[in-house]
Amino acid sequence: CVLYESGYRRRGIVLDYSDNGVRLRFPTNEKLPPDVALQATAVGLEGPARVIWQEGSEAGFALI
After folding, report:
1. Contact at 8 Å (CB) between 36 and 2?
2. Burial bucket for residue 9 (CB in 10 Å: 0-12, 13-18, 19+)
3. What integer pLDDT is reported at residue 52 of this predicted model?
4. Cβ-proximal residues to 8 (8 Å cutoff; 6+ apart), any chain
5. 3-state helix, strand, coil in the chain (%, to 5)
6. Cα distance between the two ends of the chain
7. Which are the contacts of 45, defined by CB distance < 8 A and separation ≥ 6?
8. Which of 22, 36, 45, 54 has the lowest tally of Cβ within 10 angstroms?
9. Using CA atoms, how far apart are residues 62 and 19, in angstroms rounded to an integer?
10. What is the pLDDT of residue 34?
11. What was the pLDDT predicted at 19?
12. In the Cβ-directed half-sphere of 42, how many Cα atoms lie within 13 Å?
């Protein structure tokens, strides 16, 4: 899931990941804020992240 600074949580599906980033698909096309907290514990990624790109319901994040 992605956690906004406001506390809002948004669930997504991990499509692809590496040690320093992840690509997620969301059920809606909401615009993401530039910086979020990422919690993808199933693949071992957790911490602050920056949105690198967003196209429709998919987005790429870099861990920071």
Report:
1. yes
2. exposed
3. 97
4. none
5. 5, 60, 35
6. 16
7. 17, 22, 38, 63
8. 54
9. 9
10. 96
11. 83
12. 10
Please give the Cα distance from 6 to 2 (Å, whole number): 11
Q: What is the pLDDT of residues 16-60, one digit of tens each?
A: 998 888 999 999 999 999 999 999 888 888 899 999 999 999 999
If you search the block for the tokens 């600074």, which residue do you land on?
5
Q: Which one is predicted more confidently, 19 or 61? A: 61
Mean pLDDT of 4-16: 93
Name the strands in the sheet holding 9-10, side by side, starting at the edge strand that comes first in the sequence. Answer: 9-10, 2-3, 35-40, 45-55, 58-63, 21-25, 13-18
